[in-house]
Amino acid sequence: MIYTFDSAMTGAPVLSGSAGALRALVKACLVDGFGAGAVATLTVAAGIATATFAAAHPYRVGSVSQFAGATPAGLNGQKRILSITTNAVTYAAPGIADGAATGTITHKVAAAGWQELFAGALANVLCVKPTVPEATGCVLRVDDTGTINARVRAYESMTDVSTGAGPTPLESQLAGGLYWPKSGTANATARPWYMVADERGFYLALSPQGTDRYTLLYAGDIASLKSGDAYGYLLTGNQADQTALTTVPDGCCGWSHRSARSGAYMVRAHTAIGQSLAMQRLGAHHNGSTSDVYAGTAGYSLGTYPNGPNNGLMTGALELHGLGIRGTLPGLLHPVQDCGTAFATGAIVDGTDDLAGRRLLAVRVAPPSGAVTPGTVFLDITGNWSR
Fold it and tell me: Is the model's pLDDT at 302 over the cut of 90?
């Protein structure tokens, strides 16, 4: 299941240049959920449940809610939201008889089902991993004791909050781990963010200057070309503090680079031998005039949006190269054409053809500051992401 979260949702965690802010955000989305409250009424008609609330709710069409306390019991659990109004939402309730539910009914934005390790062991440090058996089982450690950035590293496994095997990146590759930007200022000013996650990986879009210019980061299992890839876990991030950068953030997944290799690491090579391996991110259709460029801008490929022959938005995968093509980033689509300003962050596009039935979330990717033209990428918020 795909889970979507953003900073404008009622009750969402606030991202700022404060210690612990990013840790709280990641934990809320992956482990705990947020926006909990009471359901005023819950009724079923023709297989559709309608929940009403006494005040504003946090949901978007396509987001996932966790309901509890209702009778019939089939109305409880994680439910994808089908439609919304100011004070009500609907979701599918197949097989449930028409009528009003009873009980003390509660709701919250559902978490993506990850597990926290070593809870409370070290202030403002978070260690999380997927719980599904098909995942690689690697652990993400977020050290959010700083203000404008958090420092992140993956491990193959961990024995306590500060000790683990297979650190990624290695200390020799980047001392202290990668940088995840929070805010260009060390204060409580709120910054916008988006997260799209499933049970094995997540994208986190952060805007450290508070504008429509996001750094898009990824942590989790990739769509590997190697069957049963036990070390197919990727972590992206910046190589330094880039909260006020005017060029391109190292770790941004909207970037395709034919000449550079930094900001993306896998825990091991496909041979399963050795340690952390630096990866190159290269758009499958990046064959334009510019070697290193944002997707959805001039120089990435050929032509402009929309594509003349079919009036369409054409997209391709982001490949990971390291000792060969390892795989792709799941659920991420790079536009082939120059999209200009056609899509703002948060815009939803309905897929067609091989993406029929999918809803795509636009993210404007760019340096936090400066004159570099923002690119555009799309995240599949319907899924499932193939792996």
Answer: no
Query: Each residue of 44-66: b (16+ CB within 10 Å) or e?
Result: beeebbbbebeeebbbbebbbbb
- Tell me, yes or no, if the pTM score tops 0.85: yes
Instruction: Output the pLDDT for position 386.
Output: 87
- Dist CA 55 CA 53 (whole Å): 5
pLDDT digits (tens, 9 = 90+) for 356-382: 999 999 999 999 999 999 999 999 999
Let me know how long the chain is. Answer: 387
Cis, bond preceding 368 (omega within 30 deg of 0): no
**pLDDT tens track for 56-97:** 999 999 999 999 999 999 999 999 999 999 999 999 999 999
pLDDT at 6: 98
Would you say the C-alpha torsion 67, 91, 52, 12 has a positive or negative sign?
Answer: positive
Q: What is the mean pLDDT of the chain?
A: 97
DSSP lists the bridge partners of residue 280 as: 321
Pick the closest to residue 72 from 52, 42, 36 (CA basis): 42
> Please, which pLDDT band fits residue 260 given cuts at 50, 70 and 90?
confident
Tell me, what amino acid is at 104?
T
Distance, in Å, from the CA atom of 214 to the CA atom of 231, rounded to the nearest integer, reads 28
Bridge partners (DSSP) listed for residue 362: 378
φ, ψ (nearest 5 deg) of residue 284: -60, -25
Q: Please say whether the dihedral angle defined by the alpha carbons of residues 215, 221, 223 and 226, taken in this order, is positive or negative.
A: positive
Q: What whole-number distance in Å separates Cα of residue 58 and Cα of residue 250?
A: 33
- Give the 3-state secondary structure of residue 180: strand
**Residue 318 is which amino acid?**
L
Rg value, the chain, Cα? 21
Encoded tokens for 109? 């934005």
Backbone CA torsion sign across 104, 105, 106, 110: positive
Confidence of residue 326 (pLDDT cuts 50, 70, 90): very high
How many Å apart are CA 146 and CA 17, to the nearest integer?
A: 8
Give yes or no for a contact between 106 and 71, defined as CB atoms under 8 angstroms apart.
no
Average pLDDT score over residue span 191-204: 98
Strands 325-328 vs 223-224: parallel, antiparallel or unpaired:
antiparallel
121-127 long-range Cβ contacts below 8 angstroms, 24+ apart? 121/160, 121/161, 122/161, 122/162, 123/20, 124/19, 124/20, 124/23, 125/23, 125/161, 125/162, 126/23, 126/26, 126/27, 127/158, 127/161
